[in-house]
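Much of what follows relies on a compact textual record of a protein's fold. Here is one such record, which you should read through line by line:
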Amino acid sequence: MVETIITKANGKDSVIDFRDALCVSDIDHYARIHAKGGKDSGFPSCIKMYLCDYRKGTGDKSTTVSANLSPDIIFELYEACKRNVGSGMAISTASPGVTHLGSIASALTALLKHKSRRLGADYKGEQITKEQLLEDGKNIKAALTGLSEQGAITLTGGVDYGLVIRKANPYKRGNDGYAPFTTVQINRTSLKGTADLSRYPWYIKVVNGEAPLNEKEGGAVNYDESKSRNVKEAAILISDRDMFRMMHQITEYIKIFENAYGIPVVLAGRKKIDEERKG
């Protein structure tokens, strides 16, 4: 059996993969290249993302959800990945007195981590005052400023990113008004709650379910997630390296698809235009 998986990555108790579901546009809409989808246009051109959470076990005990990502979303994610290649914490080895500065960097980095943990920790019986929090903030700022000025340390956590997609399928709405919906959340957060640079800064969550639809003027469709049913969800943490690798592979595949299937449609569409003009 032919496999449609383009790429995948494994998490601690989860796995994510991206599959080919691209569709070429019809000749009458050749300039779109990708099928738009809809009631009359059929299935929209997309990359199908599957996410499986097996924390409770495999097989029937696992939870699998899916979402459709348009090609432009994939390209957007790839651009976000390219801005974060090589992000991390760098200790300079070329600045004067590097050994001394390196020791200072290590000590102040440890202080930074300790103070930041204190900001979010729930100390047993210890009352943390506003003044203490402000003092911690000043110490952290002073440490980073001093190290940066000396060239001993550079924090390059990268660029954070956030995306939320909410979609419902009105064409599969039942007699009770409920229709399938999908919510996708994709975030990149450089720092963890402890102020450490995250090794797995990408967070992807998908929710599938059914909910009543709300149609607005102009044809826009929304759904009431507070009244949802048959809800399933799964999430995964991904490293910068894995995210970059996957988005690179998918974008390259989309380009190949557009050349292989788009060029014939464009040529046919242009030919039809010429014939209509002559007629």
The helical segments are 71-82, 98-120, 130-150, 240-278.
